[in-house]
Structures are given as structure tokens and as C-alpha cells.
Design goal:
Blueprint: H1 2-117, H2 128-132
Length: 142
């Protein structure tokens, strides 16, 4: 019986060692698969991150372009406002000069009219008020 028990024990030990060896091989294979999948996931994430970084860089460049255009547009608008203010100032000055010219032409026309009315040969003194169109009489009372 001792022999039989030893043989049984030996066969059980061989079965256990075979099972252990099989389990270790399976663990090794599963570990290899796990690391392979993990490496693939890491590689996939790195590619995705790289793509995102590339897209981000392109968007940043596009943003800088839009900001440059906005700044150029604002500068153009500022220059136009300055030019407009300058032209409006010139327009106002032109208006004042035109009014002065019309006033002077009116004065010349009044002097002509006074001179034309005095063609009778008599000498008459004209007041500044008459020349300015404010009425009034000359020194001679006429």
C-alpha cells in the first residue's frame, strides 16, 4: 500500500506540476497579450494626441491670422476716421471762406450799385454802413 500511495502521490504531483506549468504558460501568454494591447492603446493615444496638437497648432495660426486682420482693419478704420476728421475740418474752413467770399462779393456789388447811382457827377461820401449793407447816410447827409 505504501507503494501505491507513493505512486498516487507521484502521479498527483506530476499532474499538479503539469497544471502549474500550463497555468504559468497561460499567464505568460495573457501577460504578453495584455502588454501588447496596452502598447497598442498607448500608441493609439499618442497618435490621437499628435493629431490634436497638430490641429491645435493650425487653429492657433489661424487665430493669429484673424487677429492680424482685425488689427489691420482697426488701424485702417482709425486712419479713415482721422482722414474724415481732416476732411470735415477742411469742409468747415471751405464753408467759412465761401461765406467770407460771398460777403465780400456782396460788398463789391453794393459799392458798384452806389457808384452806379452816383453817375450824375456829384460827389457823395459813402458811409461804411452803406458799404457793409447796414444802411445809413453819407457825410453829406444823402
Amino acid at each position: 500500500d505504501l507503494h501505491t500511495a507513493l505512486a498516487n502521490e507521484h502521479s498527483l504531483r506530476l499532474a499538479a506540476e503539469a497544471h502549474l506549468s500550463s497555468s504559468q504558460a497561460e499567464i505568460e501568454e495573457l501577460s504578453t497579450q495584455l502588454f501588447s494591447e496596452a502598447n497598442e492603446l498607448v500608441a493609439t493615444e499618442r497618435r490621437a494626441l499628435s493629431e490634436l496638437q497638430t490641429k491645435y497648432a493650425k487653429l492657433e495660426e489661424e487665430k493669429r491670422g484673424w487677429e492680424r486682420q482685425a488689427k489691420e482693419r482697426e488701424e485702417g478704420e482709425r486712419r479713415l476716421r482721422e482722414r474724415n476728421a481732416l476732411l470735415e475740418g477742411r469742409e468747415g474752413e471751405k464753408g467759412r471762406r465761401w461765406e467770407e467770399l460771398e460777403r465780400r462779393v456782396g460788398r463789391v456789388e453794393r459799392v458798384k450799385a452806389l457808384l452806379a447811382g452816383d453817375e450824375g457827377g456829384g460827389r457823395r461820401v459813402v458811409s461804411a454802413g452803406e458799404i457793409e449793407g447796414k444802411g445809413g447816410k453819407g457825410v453829406d447827409g444823402v
